[in-house]
Amino acid sequence: MGISEEELKRRIPSVYSDAFFGQVSETYLQIKTSDVLSLFLDIGWEVQTATEINVRNKDRKGFQKHMLILEHPSMIFQEEGKLNVVIRNSHDRSNSLEIFYGFLRFACSNQLLVRNLGNNNQKSFRHYKANLDTIKDWVAEILFWIQRLSR
Question: Short name of one Pfam family for this protein (predicted)?
Answer without folding.
Answer: DUF932
